[in-house]
Specification:
The complex is a heterodimer of chains A (269) and B (246). With 269 residues, chain A is mainly α. Chain A has two domains: 132 residues, no CATH class; 102 residues. In chain A, 68% of the residues lie in helices and 0% in strands. Chain B has one domain. Classes of the chains: A mainly alpha (269), B mainly beta (246). At the A-B interface, α8, α10 and α12 of A face β8, β10, β12, β14 and β20 of B.
Chain lengths: 269, 246
């Protein structure tokens, strides 16, 4: 039995979503264009999807709370979209961006709430957990994308989760160690800088520092480590101050080492 | 008088910037490749990886990638550089690489489809100059400046030493960007109506033709352009950042 509702064209809503955000393949685009010319229902869905995506795009992801995200997505929860999302036919849609996948899943999550009709605290907590879970999975997936821009998006999306979700923290550490783009590695450090302090992450930053090829990223690493103010990190910074090939990095490490050196009472006078 | 002096200065600077590629242009071609991109209609991805090479990338309307390699200086005729360039294609992705490490500096002239997503990884060898690519430009380099002109997608650039100059005629909506150099200035030109949020370290000197609305933490400033939008990270350890309106 076909899972395509009666009267519908042979396309999935994932394809419609890809079309809405200009990610559809030319073949999908051609097929959908001719269908859309005849189907008012699909045109209406397309309009809603585009509006939702615009709302998501307009906001810096890292600054978007889960609740804001839910609100933006709720705008797209037209009944027309629901059954197809539940089919999860997007799984076969090829290289759909992970954010898109997250958006589709979140629509399903928000829909689940409206289906049970429950706005109680317990349901909200469950939904939040689901959104958080989806977000974490999306971050991990996005950090594996071949395009640096996608990975930058992943970092922005995952920043608020670093302190809570070990999978996100681990993905950030992996990016710090081996992402080919210095821009992504710097973005990871920016995200860590904005998150609650995390001892394991700091240790990982120190570990990654000597192997980091880009001086600008090493500078950011030193800043982050120094901001912790832990005198036990002094030796590691001292090694950088004496051994880094870049003079500006050595100077910054020296300044950071001084910041971590406890001043004697004599020095204060 | 002042104007004419400026013109002369600009002309001299422009000449100085293009001098290495001009010098290379006078050298004979030692190797070249040409490879077609997929005709599927999706954005072709062009991945280029080469050390000790300066790059010039120009856009064309053809569905192919061409690469021409010239030495920066005359080479003894006994040296055979044939087969240095290697080109391959898989799906929408075309790869241009070197078959072996270079023992001298070379210049690589690339022609790519105008809508290509360009990914260049260089290391030493001089500057990277990209012109007219309307897809995207992701460039990771060291010891060389990076110039991206008349772009209309997005760009992500990093170099350890060298200026970064990027001029957009249009910006792809919703895509974060990042420009980092350890030593060098960053000049970023964007359309007047661009919406973005700049992330800039507090210690960096910034000149802007855009009105900026500041917010955020003390070390990393968040500066909204036209109300804010996708982030643009700007970092230089030794240089200034200039934002220009197109």
């Amino acid at each position: 039995m076909s899972d395509i509702p009666e009267g519908r064209a042979d396309h999935s809503d994932a394809e419609l979503l890809l079309f809405a955000v200009d990610e559809a393949t030319p073949a999908q685009r051609a097929a959908l264009s001719s269908h859309l010319a005849e189907c008012a229902e699909c045109r209406a869905s397309l309009r809603e999807l585009r509006e939702t995506w615009r709302e998501l795009d307009a906001q810096p992801m890292a600054d978007m709370s889960d609740l804001e995200w839910e609100r933006a997505l709720r705008a797209a929860t037209a009944p027309r979209v629901a059954p197809v999302v539940e089919r999860r036919s997007w799984r076969g849609s090829g290289p759909a961006v992970a954010g898109l996948v997250a958006a589709v899943l979140l629509v399903a999550a928000v829909l689940a709430l409206s289906v049970v009709g429950a706005r109680q605290e317990r349901e909200m907590a469950r939904l939040r957990a689901e959104v958080r879970e989806t977000r974490a999975l999306a971050v991990v997936a996005m950090l594996r994308e071949p395009e640096s821009a996608q990975r930058l998006r992943g970092v922005a999306l995952g920043g608020p989760l670093i302190g809570d979700d070990p999978r996100v923290a681990a993905a950030f550490v992996a990016a710090l160690r081996s992402d080919p783009s210095p821009n992504v590695r710097l973005a990871v450090l920016d995200a860590v800088d904005g998150a609650p302090r995390h001892a394991q992450l700091t240790a990982e930053i120190l570990r990654a520092l000597p192997a980091e090829p880009q001086p600008a990223v090493r500078l950011a690493m030193i800043e982050l480590v120094a901001e912790l103010g832990d005198p036990r990190l002094r030796d590691a910074l001292n090694a950088v101050a004496n051994g880094d090939p870049d003079p500006s990095v050595r100077t910054r490490a020296r300044v950071a080492t001084d910041r971590l050196t406890p001043r004697s009472s004599g020095a204060r006078q | 008088m002042l104007v004419s002096r400026r013109i002369v200065t600009a002309a001299v600077l422009a000449l100085a910037a293009s001098a290495p590629s001009l010098a290379a242009a006078q050298q004979p071609v030692v190797d070249s490749v040409r490879i077609g991109t997929s005709a599927s209609g999706s954005r072709p991805v062009v991945v280029v990886q080469a050390a000790n090479v300066s790059f010039t990338v120009t856009a064309h309307a053809r569905a192919e990638v061409s690469a021409v390699l010239r030495p920066m200086r005359s080479r003894p005729s006994s040296i055979n550089d044939e087969g240095l360039l290697r080109a391959s294609a898989a799906g929408d992705t075309v790869r241009i690489e070197l078959a072996r490490a270079l023992d001298a500096w070379y210049h690589l002239e690339l022609g790519v489809p105008s809508g290509a997503a360009l990914r260049i990884t260089g290391d030493n060898g001089g500057d990277v100059r990209v012109e007219g690519v309307r897809g995207s430009a992701e460039i990771t380099h060291s010891n060389g400046g990076v110039t991206v002109l008349d772009a209309s997608g997005y760009a992500i650039v990093a170099t350890s030493n060298g200026h970064i100059r990027v001029r957009f005629v249009a910006v792809e909506r919703g895509v974060p960007m990042s420009f980092i150099t350890n030593n060098g200035d960053i000049d970023l030109t964007m359309p007047a109506d661009v919406r973005a949020t700049l992330l800039v370290d507090d210690s960096i000197s910034l000149q802007s033709e855009f009105p900026l609305a500041s917010s955020g933490r003390s070390r990393l400033r968040r500066l909204a352009v036209n109300g804010g939008g996708p982030t643009i990270r700007l970092f230089t350890n030794n240089g200034i950042v200039r934002l220009h309106r197109l």
